[in-house]
């Protein structure tokens, strides 16, 4: 090897070079996140997907993920924008929280317990006329597994008020600040 020869290797930055993910409260059905772009002016997409969806769709690369998102977001925009006003795509995506800049705080809800989700972000660059965009950074992501539902034994104070043919029920949990569901069944209901 010639000692005067210099070899230089340049690699794309690690996926966390563009975004910082902060995972807040995680429940069995939701997850709070804060995503901060290292470049405050960069416009980016942040989204969440259940891992099983990615597997079912055969999404195994950043390009396939971008294409899936692109088709979804542009398809959504085309429900409101026609070809004559597609130059408003950038504004549409920002106003409808499909794209962000700076820091974004999102509470993802409607999730299922005991499942793995990927929360991901990537920078995008709009064309000069604003009617299209492409991915501008690698995909950064964090994995979150939601806990199973925790069941608890809860006692309630129950007040029943009868007014003619109507019955009014008031249930007050004792030493419990979590959610609960109450339903009333006939004593002879064979299902319960």
Q: Count the beta strands.
A: 10
**Overall form:** elongated
The major sheet is characterized as: 5 strands, antiparallel
C-alpha-based Rg, rounded: 25 Å
* Helix and strand sequence: EEEHHHEEEEEEE
Cα distance, first to last residue?
A: 82 Å
Q: Keywords, please?
A:
192 residues; alpha+beta; 5-stranded antiparallel beta sheet; 3-stranded antiparallel beta sheet
Your description of this structure?
The protein is an alpha+beta fold and 192 residues long. The protein is 16% helix and 36% strand. It contains 3 helices and 10 strands, in the order E-E-E-H-H-H-E-E-E-E-E-E-E. Strands 3, 4, 6, 7 and 8 form a 5-stranded antiparallel beta sheet that branches. Strands 1-2-5 form a 3-stranded antiparallel beta sheet, with no helix packed on it. A two-stranded antiparallel ribbon has the order 9-10. Strand 1 and strand 2 form a beta hairpin. The chain starts with 18 loop residues before the first strand and ends in an 18-residue tail after the last strand.
List the helices and strands and how they pair.
Layout: E1 19-26, E2 31-37, E3 43-50, H1 51-56, H2 62-78, H3 89-95, E4 100-101, E5 103-108, E6 116-126, E7 133-135, E8 140-145, E9 155-163, E10 166-174
Antiparallel strand pairs: 1-2, 2-5, 3-4, 3-6, 6-7, 6-8, 9-10
């Amino acid at each position: 090897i010639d000692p005067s020869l210099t070899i230089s290797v340049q690699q794309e930055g690690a996926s966390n070079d563009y975004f910082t993910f902060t995972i807040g409260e995680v429940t069995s059905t939701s997850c709070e996140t804060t995503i901060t772009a290292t470049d405050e002016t960069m416009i980016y997409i942040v989204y969440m997907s259940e891992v099983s969806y990615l597997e079912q769709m055969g999404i195994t690369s950043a390009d396939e993920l971008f294409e899936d998102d692109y088709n979804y977001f542009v398809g959504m925009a085309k429900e409101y924008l026609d070809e004559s006003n597609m130059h408003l795509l950038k504004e549409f995506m920002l106003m409808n929280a499909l794209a962000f800049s700076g820091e974004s705080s999102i509470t993802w809800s409607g999730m299922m317990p005991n499942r793995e989700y990927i929360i991901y972000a990537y920078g995008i660059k709009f064309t000069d006329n604003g009617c299209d965009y492409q991915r501008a950074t690698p995909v950064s992501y964090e994995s979150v597994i939601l806990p199973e539902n925790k069941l608890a034994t809860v006692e309630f104070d129950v007040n029943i008020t009868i007014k003619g043919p109507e019955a009014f029920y008031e249930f007050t949990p004792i030493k419990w600040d979590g959610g609960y569901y109450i339903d009333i069944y006939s004593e002879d209901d064979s299902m319960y």
